[in-house]
Amino acid sequence: GAVVSQHPSRVICKSGTSVKIECRSLDFQATTMFWYRQFPKKSLMLMATSNEGSKATYEQGVEKDKFLINHASLTLSTLTVTSAHPEDSSFYICSAEAASGVADTQYFGPGTRLTVL
Amino acid sequence: DQQVKQNSPSLSVQEGRISILNCDYTNSMFDYFLWYKKYPAEGPTFLISISSIKDKNEDGRFTVFLNKSAKHLSLHIVPSQPGDSAVYFCAASSVDKLIFGTGTRLQVFP
C-alpha cells in the first residue's frame, strides 16, 4: 500500500528557532499534499494545501509567513515553522493524494511531534 | 507495514439502513481510536473516538465499537442519511503516534 513518511518524528527546539518537517510519499507521486495540526481533543485542523510546483493555499487564520510550505517535487513537501514559539507546540501531520487513483484518497504520514521550549 | 487497515475502500448503503465501517490495527500499544469524516475538497473532521478502556461509545447516530482481543473497531451509523456520504478514516493513537487508515468511501443512496 501507499506509504507516506515524515521526518523527524519528534523535535524539540528553543523558542525563536526554525524547524523544518519533511513529508515524503515513498511509493507514489503526490500532486497534492496537505498539512494538518492536531489540537487537544484530537481534532485535526487543515493548515494548508500544497501542490507541486505552485504556492501553497493556506486556510484562514494560518500565517503563511510563519508556516512556510514548499512542495518541490512530486514526492516531497516541507513545512517550516519559523521563529517557533511554545504555542506552536503540537502534532503536525501531512497527507498525500496520489496523482493517479481515486479522488479524495489520502494517505497520512505518521506525524511529527514539535515541542518548543 | 500498515498498522491501521481499512480493508473496504467503498461501501454503498440505502438511506435509513445501518452503515458499518470496519478498521483493523496491529499495534497493541494504541490506546485511543478515532474516526474522521472527510468531504471532497475539505480536511477531515473529527467524528467520534473511543479509549482502549472502553468497548463502546455512542454519540447520536454514531456508535464506535472496540474489540481489543481482535484488534478491531467499527463505526456504526444508524439510520444512514445521504449527508453521511463521505470518506471515513479511522485512526489509532499512542503517545507520539497518530496512524490513519486509508479510508472507506461511504455512499448513502435514497
Write the layout of secondary structure elements.
The complex is a heterodimer of chains A (117) and B (110).
Chain A: E1 4-7, E2 10-13, E3 19-25, E4 30-38, E5 44-51, E6 57-58, E7 67-73, E8 76-81, E9 90-98, E10 106-108, E11 112-116
Chain B: E1 4-5, E2 10-14, E3 19-25, E4 32-38, E5 45-51, E6 56-59, E7 62-67, E8 72-77, E9 86-94, E10 97-100, E11 104-109
Parallel strand pairs in B: 2-11
Antiparallel strand pairs in B: 1-3, 3-8, 4-5, 4-9, 6-7, 7-8, 9-10, 9-11
Task: Give me some keywords for this one.
heterodimer, A: 117 residues, mainly beta, 4-stranded antiparallel sheet, 0% helix, 55% strand, globular, B: 110 residues, 5-stranded antiparallel sheet, 11 strands
What does this structure look like?
The complex is a heterodimer of chains A (117) and B (110). With 117 residues, chain A is an all-beta fold. Chain A has no helices and eleven strands. Chain A has strands spanning 4-7, 10-13, 19-25, 30-38, 44-51, 57-58, 67-73, 76-81, 90-98, 106-108, 112-116. In chain A, strands 2, 4, 5, 6, 9, 10 and 11 form a seven-stranded mixed sheet that branches. Chain A has a four-stranded antiparallel sheet with strand order 1-3-8-7, with no helix packed on it. Chain B is 0% helix and 57% strand. At the A-B interface, strand 4, strand 5, strand 9 and strand 10 of A face strand 4, strand 5, strand 9 and strand 10 of B.
Q: DSSP strand (E) fraction of chain B?
A: over 45%
> Can you tell me the residue ranges of chain A where pLDDT is under 50 for at least 5 consecutive residues?
none
| Residue-averaged pLDDT of chain A | 88
Strand elements of chain B, count = 11
Give the largest chain-chain interface (CB within 8 Å): A-B, 27 and 25 residues
Termini separation of chain A (Å)? Answer: 37 Å
Assembly level: heterodimer
Which structural category do the helix and sheet elements of chain B fall into? mainly beta
**Mean of residue pLDDT values of chain B:** 92
Termini distance of chain B?
Answer: 38 Å
Question: Tell me, what's the shape of chain A?
Answer: globular
CA-based gyration radius of chain A? 13 Å
